[in-house]
Write a structure and sequence with these properties.
Layout (H helix, E strand, L loop, with lengths): L1 H12 L4 E6 L14 E4 L2 E2 L3 E8 L2 E11 L2 E8 L12 E4 L8 E5 L2 H6 L7 E6 L5 E8 L2 E10 L1
Antiparallel strand pairs: 1-2, 1-11, 2-4, 3-4, 4-5, 5-6, 6-7, 8-9, 9-10, 10-11
Length: 155
């Protein structure tokens, strides 16, 4: 869609930029995020794929992979060990079902994710930017309820 093209182009325009912040859900079950500095670095930007390493403190095992997909955009979570080999739980995520907006897209869990992590079958990830481009929010819902939010500011 036009909105998705504009969204993808906007993120590509941030190539080389990092966003830093923290989780704003201290009660989140993912204790590994609590009190840690979170950094998303828009690092590799091709015509059909953008790779965004997402560091949690000293943990550099995560990369968000945003791709153009048939009928929309896809967000995957690439988890790797320090030696570069894939984690057992990797490449989960989803593909847009709506056109979203030039600033925000949502990615409901796909079948691969439901098979890999059955409890994540109802996950929906949201990646949105503030109008002025200085804020990035990564937000996750499960069963339609808030599960995790990272609020990041452009460095």
């Amino acid at each position: 869609s036009e909105s998705q093209d504009a969204y993808f182009q906007m993120i590509a325009g941030f190539c080389g930029t990092s966003f830093t912040g923290q989780s704003s859900f201290p009660e989140d079950p993912g204790d590994s995020f609590r009190g840690k500095e979170l950094v998303a670095y828009i690092e590799t930007c091709g015509p059909d794929e953008i790779r965004i390493p997402f560091n949690v403190g000293e943990d550099h095992s995560r990369t968000w992979v945003l791709r153009r997909a048939e009928g929309g955009l896809q967000l995957k979570h690439d988890h790797r060990h320090a030696d570069g080999t894939p984690d057992e739980v990797t490449m989960y995520g989803g593909t847009t079902l709506s056109s979203g907006s030039p600033l925000a897209q949502s990615f409901p869990a796909d079948d691969y994710t439901a098979d890999l992590i059955p409890e994540a079958a109802t996950n929906e990830w949201f990646l949105s930017f503030s109008e002025d481009g200085t804020g990035l929010t990564y937000y996750l819902e499960r069963h339609g309820k808030p599960r995790f939010r990272a609020t990041l500011k452009k460095n």
